[in-house]
Each structure stands twice: as C-alpha cells, then as structure tokens.
Amino acid sequence: MADSPGAAEAPLSGAELRALLVERWQASHDLRLVQIRGRLYLQVMWNHLEQQSFPLSVGDYADHIERVAAALNDLGLAATVRQWLGSTRDRPRLGKALSLPLEPVSGRASEFLL
Length: 114
What we know:
Elements: H1 14-25, E1 29-36, E2 39-48, H2 58-74, H3 78-87, E3 98-102
Antiparallel strand pairs: 1-2, 2-3
C-alpha cells in the first residue's frame, strides 16, 4: 500500500487501517484516540473484532475505524500511522494497549485536546 509513489501522503481509509492491523497482528484490533496529560495518542487495544465478546458489530466497527482514520487524516498523520503500524515490534496484550504519541502536522490538533 505505502509502496506506490505518493501513497504515504494519501488519506488513510478505514479499510486500509483495518488491513494494516490484520497484516501486523492477524486481528482487527480496536483503535482509540486518547488524550493523556495534554498529549494525543493513538492506542491499539487488546480486544478485537474476531473475539466473541467484542462489543461492536462488524458494521459498527467499520464505522468506528473510519472515524479514527478521518481524524488521523485531519491531523495530517496518515503516513506516521502507516509507518508505525508497519514497523512496531510490540503487540497489544490483555489489559495493555500499544500507544503511539501523535505530533499533529496540522493546526487542528486543538480540536482534539480539551
């Protein structure tokens, strides 16, 4: 995906984000944008769509991931997230999410930080 020219600058879609998660960890993990002590993080949660106990339906999960992708695109972070998901050696574990500190490229970050 990111191998083609200009792909790093292309907007991130929910489908691509899910594909990156499945490629890396063989599961459609939940993603969260969270603020901790004034900083914004993308968290890859330990729970995933393939679990029976996952609280979202396939459609609701797709909508949620699409919203996360849109927020990342608005912040100008599609390339950063692609690179991190493709290279991190860590994996989400029960009770412990992976966190990527986000340094927004655009000036819209204040909309996410209250």
